[in-house]
Every structure is written in C-alpha cells, then in structure tokens.
Design brief:
The protein has five helices and seven strands; from the N terminus they run ααααβββββαββ. It is of the alpha+beta class. The longest helix has 19 residues. The N terminus is likely disordered.
C-alpha cells in the first residue's frame, strides 16, 4: 500500500474518485483551523508548515512539502529556487505565512506559482492572526467550479 501512496491518496485508492480542488481546499481550511487552534499565532512559518502537512496527511491527503517550481523561458528551464510550501493532492498550492500583514506581493507570488505549475487553486494562509478565517486568502487561476 505504501507504493500507491506516492501516486494517489487513500481516498482515491478506496473510492476511485479524485477530489476536486474545492473539496481539497475545504480540507485544508479545516486542517488550518485545527492547527491554529492548537498552536495559536506567533510561531515560525516552518512550524505551521510541518503541522499543517501532518494534519492533512492524517486525513489521507497526499502532501508534498517545498515542491520546486521551475521557470521556463523560451526553451530554457531555470531552476531559480522557487518552492511551494505545500502542494496537496497535486492540485492545490498552499503558501504559508506568519506575518503582521499579508502584502499584495504575497498574493501575486502565489498566482505566479499557480501559473508556472499549471495549477488552478491556491490558498495563502497567514497564521499570525487572532482568527484564522481572517488569514486565509483564496487565489484562483482559471478554476472550473
């Protein structure tokens, strides 16, 4: 069973149905709420990243941490060090922040990651807030509802 986990989540294995981006996002938001409730604001992004990845894996979701996102310029592949914090089910990119205020550049960065990785949905989650719902921003790149 371990071999298949690299290619499909246990949900896909047992139901035979791939999850839609919106279903995955719902699980991510719920997991982020749990992590924020337990840890609270004020920690390093790396702590939230590890905790959120763990929480999502407990739910049977496939999570890749620090996935490289190359830039292709004409015929050249440029590995510049762009990394998505989390990629869930190979469909949703999660960028984690622990900052006082999310800047417009953070949203643009996530949109650029979505375009470069050919993904449709991203969540920007800032854990340095009193209420986690105020720290979640949904970024869409040609998502079909």
């Amino acid at each position: 069973m371990r071999f298949f986990a690299a290619f499909a989540s246990w949900r896909e294995i047992y139901t035979g149905v791939a999850m839609h981006e919106n279903e995955i996002a719902q699980q991510i938001v719920d997991a982020a709420l749990r992590v924020h409730t337990i840890l609270g604001p004020g920690l390093l992004e790396s702590v939230y990243q590890a905790a959120l990845a763990y929480e999502l894996e407990k739910r049977g979701l496939r999570v890749t941490r620090q996935q490289a996102i190359p830039v292709v310029y004409e015929a050249i592949r440029i590995d510049t060090g762009f990394h998505a914090d989390l990629v869930v089910e190979d469909k949703v990119i999660v960028e984690i922040k622990s900052v006082e205020t999310v800047a417009p550049v953070h949203k643009k960065q996530l949109l650029s990651y979505l375009k470069l990785a050919d993904k449709r949905l991203g969540l920007l989650i800032n854990f340095n807030v009193v209420l986690i719902k105020n720290g979640i921003t949904r970024i869409v790149n040609r998502l079909q509802e």
